[in-house]
Design a protein that fits this description.
The protein is mainly α and 331 residues long. It is built from 13 helices and four strands. A two-stranded antiparallel sheet has the order 1-2.
């Protein structure tokens, strides 16, 4: 659920195989199939065909309530002292959302500049300028389809079976796909990230010029999220890019798609039940079609030469003209 700092994908040739050979799946689907095979005695109930997404109660703004924490200063000190861009951001948050300037001065005086993050992204940007790496999802197979992930997935599914089944009923998303997201993002909560979200987003907002607008928007959403959820904004921890919880939601995604699935009055994506419901809700609100296949293998009568990549799209007619036909009916 993270927003990657890299976009696009390598262009590659599709080498289609003969019917019934070389059947391949995306990593998430393969992971889901293997987890399902390993669940054994904790098989899930049959999924509904097309349940409607659960209607969400609106999350109300609380403009009269201050942010949590005893932060207050006349000006920003510390690592971000003297940043004109931060001063403009504080003024925007005060005028647009009614946040207290003195509070924000004190809060950002506690923020720490993450040089490691900037160095990492600088290396990543340099790599993007070089020739693209050739390969597909199979490069990631060994990272996720191992005993550690599979054992953790089985244990997680057993512990949270009721929540997974309820998410399937209410949102139409089978448990296996929710488990797949949790496996790839945080290994079911084992790797949640150690960076303070405040440090990560402040560093990227004001010292990473290439995507400063994006991260300033996420920092804005993070502060609003903290106000809504009554959180001290200096406390949440997550990834170096500001993603949070078991599903690694960015703040904007948190505010739009996170749900209080365990009914305790808070949206807490570090809690497994809320993470399960929020992932299912995210799917449901992004065009998930309950009961429909995620992938369909293709049969080919010849070698097919087509460009691939994350942004590549082909109509069924184009694929047929290239000599490819679905191995199963497409609905």
């Amino acid at each position: 659920m993270r927003t990657s700092t890299r976009t696009g994908g390598p262009a590659a040739r599709i080498q289609a195989r003969r019917p019934d050979r070389g059947r391949r799946f995306p990593p998430l689907v393969t992971w889901v199939l293997l987890v399902a095979a390993g669940l054994g005695g904790c098989s899930f109930s049959p999924e509904p065909v097309a349940p409607p997404p659960r209607p969400q109660q609106p999350v109300l703004e609380r403009p009269v309530e201050p942010l949590v924490g005893s932060y207050r200063a006349d000006r920003v000190t510390g690592d971000f002292a003297g940043y004109a861009s931060l001063e403009r951001f504080i003024e925007l948050m005060a005028s647009r959302h009614g946040l207290d300037r003195a509070y924000l001065n004190g809060l950002f005086s506690q923020a720490r500049r993450r040089q490691w993050t900037l160095d990492y992204l600088a290396r990543s940007d340099r790599e993007m300028k070089g020739p693209p790496a050739v390969g597909g999802w199979s490069r990631y197979r060994e990272k996720f389809l191992d005993a550690r992930h599979l054992d953790a997935g089985v244990a997680f599914a057993r512990r949270h079976r009721a929540a997974l089944e309820r998410a399937g009923r209410e949102y139409g998303v089978p448990p296996g796909y929710i488990l797949g997201i949790l496996a790839v993002e945080t290994n079911f909560g084992a790797v949640l990230g150690r960076d303070r979200i405040l440090d990560a987003l402040t560093t990227l907002s004001f010292d990473y010029a290439r995507r400063s607008a994006f991260f300033q928007s996420e920092l804005e959403q993070f502060l609003l999220m903290a106000r809504q959820e009554r959180l001290d904004p200096a406390r949440p921890r997550g990834s170096f890019a500001g993603a949070m919880g078991l599903g690694q939601f960015m703040p904007s995604s948190f505010r739009k798609w996170a749900v209080d699935f365990n009914g305790d009055g808070r949206r807490d994506l570090w809690h497994p039940e809320d993470a399960i419901g929020s992932i299912a809700h995210y799917f449901a609100r992004h065009g998930w079609q309950a009961g429909q296949p995620v992938v369909t293998p293709l049969n080919a009568s010849t070698t097919v030469d087509l460009q691939a990549g994350l942004d590549t799209r082909y109509s069924l007619g184009t694929l047929r003209r290239a000599g490819l036909s679905p191995a199963a009916p497409c609905r």
